[in-house]
């Protein structure tokens, strides 16, 4: 499903941030990406989102080479992925409904379909009835679940999360992790960057570990 | 491990169960003949309608900024269309002058009114002459008194120093200059005629002045169009800056460039469109203010000139051009800005 082949990413300012990274994530697999701060976790995820391009190697998503994707193809590639961020990246001047609906609006779905899917996604993350609220009126955990609803509303085969529990207390964090597990159970591939070692070790999943840009476990 | 088929129809059918558990309904919906494509088209139309109205709503929501921008744009457009209208009026004026090209015959002092009348009739029989108008000494004096501003000074004069004047309107206007010259020469050799004058040179000069001003106006208007483009572009730059976060997030969830650009292009359209209408009002009000004095001037010259306003097609063209400039300015601006804009 997602395959890294000898991927190297270099920044002019900081040198090699990722060096020769190779791994293969299978369909329906859930994996954690860990490593010290500055190890290159976020950079690796940016390569998947094609926010950045690698200098060497190749990244494959379902047989498509992300690292060689044309600029005009990138939006369509991103629609196959759902992204979740530590800072939620919600639009503060839009309601929960509008935030979750955004990927569907972009993909050109009709009104009824959007409304149906948004409600289903909110129900899935346990936020039914909060459609009309604004993000600022929600707790951190709820905001993160809005972010998750937005990531899954389009039913992407791959979900990517960068420190999704970084701002949450342990109880909320494990609740969010269970949510990710439930996506995995219906066949979605999930990759979560996190340095919450205790939480990761409690869950029995594959772990990819980065150290100074090199994959030392995976 | 499940393979995820690429075709969206099947994907929707299978995947919906993942999060929603409504696979069946979903499947039926997409299989309904024509349903999907019609839905997509409707959604596309809705997207445009939404962008159209939400961009207007956004302009209304920050009235101060919008009014400032639209005022500047409207003034620039009013200047350009004002130049256009002035040229149009001057051209009309020149056109009227052409048809009234005339020869003035100032008769010798000794010629009496009756002699002048007979002479005028004789000239009137010349096939090259369309019309002869006799201006008696008294008429000339009266006219001079009212229009020269020397009214009182002239009342002091005992005798009327003005000659009888014959205004000869040649047949065929300006086209045949040689014929005009010949006519003039014959008048010059007539014993009754003191001075024969063809009011032609200044018409020619006027025409060349008009041509130059038309050129200048075209250059000015090009410059003003550029100003409109830049102002619209800059407005969009600010708008994009204000909505940076939204743009970044939309991109991250798979928005295409055209999706991102659409609301901004509509904003450009609106500011151009509204500015065009405001500019039309500015120019029209100014023309209305000018009208009175122009009509007064015109009445002195046999009412041969009336102020021209924008006609319907010019109004349409004005508003269309303004809207187009707004869109183009925004588009150019977006091409630069979206290239630079980085995610995060
Ligand atoms: N745009 C950039 N330009 C230059 N260097 C960068 C850039 N982005 C990241 N880096 C560098 O790459 C290295 C890895 O950064 P990255 O954000 O991937 O780390 P991380 O593993 O996500 O760390 P953290 O756990 O703190 O989020 C860091 O040393 C950072 O300075
Ligand atoms: Mg990071």
Automatic annotation (TrEMBL), chain A:
Residues 2-217 form the ABC transporter domain. This is Cell division ATP-binding protein FtsE. Part of the ABC transporter FtsEX involved in cellular division. Important for assembly or stability of the septal ring. Homodimer. Forms a membrane-associated complex with FtsX. NCBIfam families: FtsE. It is found in: Cell inner membrane; Cell membrane. The keyword Transferase does not apply. Belongs to the ABC transporter superfamily. One of its GO terms (biological process) is cell division. Coiled coil: none annotated. Pfam families: ABC_tran. Its main location: membrane. One of its GO terms (molecular function) is ATP hydrolysis activity.
